[in-house]
Amino acid sequence: MKEKIMLKENIGKMIESLKEEYTIFAPVNVEGNILFKEITSSEEIALEYFNSKVPPKEVLFPKVEILFEFKQVGDDDIEIIPPKLERKKTLIFGIRPCDAHSFQLMRMFFGFGEFKDELFLKKWDNTILMGMACTHPRSTCFCTSLQGHPFNKEDVDIFLVDLGKKYLVEGITEKGNEVLGNIKGLGHAKEEDLEKALELSNQAELAMKPLVNVGKLPDILNSNFDHPIWKEISDTCLSCGSCVFLCPTCHCFDVLDENDQYNKRGRRIRIWDTCQFKLYTQHTSGHNPRPTKVERCRNRILHKYCYYPNNYDLLGCVGCGRCIEYCPVNNDIREIIKRFTEIEEKKEKEEVYIAE
Predict the structure, then answer these.
(1) How high does pLDDT run on average in the chain?
(2) What is the three-class DSSP state of 202?
């Protein structure tokens, strides 16, 4: 399907035409914070926003999730009750390219290897992403340094560009074109609309300064595993977990059993957890392989820029900048990466000097 035009005043008609078949999530202003929430009316949508505070990963990977329920049957048997999944399809409206790419990383993690997370994967297969171009990147955004782009269309089913009073709409996948085929009132895009979108794309890209060449990062970080900089970084960290709970690609969780012994039933749940908390890696024996903040701060960065590339051949960061924007002590992951690359560059210059 070629590019179409949808007037902003027709967003309400689109929501009405889709809500019977889809459970729709969209950016909503909740007490000054943009969050992705289920909506029933276009009036709830925050159309003018930079990005949500909490990433939309919460839609498919909620903070608290029931894995299954169980109850005792007779004296010895236990009946397992699987979770009830939403029958309708899920549509996430207005997701930014960085967050859309994060779902690909989550899908890789939950679908990797022999034991797959069927709960996440079933929800993912039942989800449509209606992406929104990022026309005004924040000063904390750095997706272009991580092979991303504020106008990246690859990870969505439908792509929208805000042209003022209207959207340029493009179906990217077969699922996306099927959805657009059910939306009435779409007009044909003109050449001036396409030129305007291209101009906005170039402006958005130029607004973000290139960071560093991250291609060598896994080797650089590995070779500096015991560098004193890690201690310096961790000295200011509060271990609050803001960086990981607001990260669209972090997926650590804990599993708990809640027992109702009086009614002989219970449920197993998973909740968000983080490698930044001391108890996360503590063994039953009391031993903790990451006993101090040094190991925990280092693990977060190595996980994204070293372990993820080694395991999945993908960077584990999408450059959304939330960890920078909301860090209470202003730790900037871009500056940390820059410092390690500068260390390596200095080593290479010294080696060349010695060789000469």
Answers:
(1) 92
(2) helix
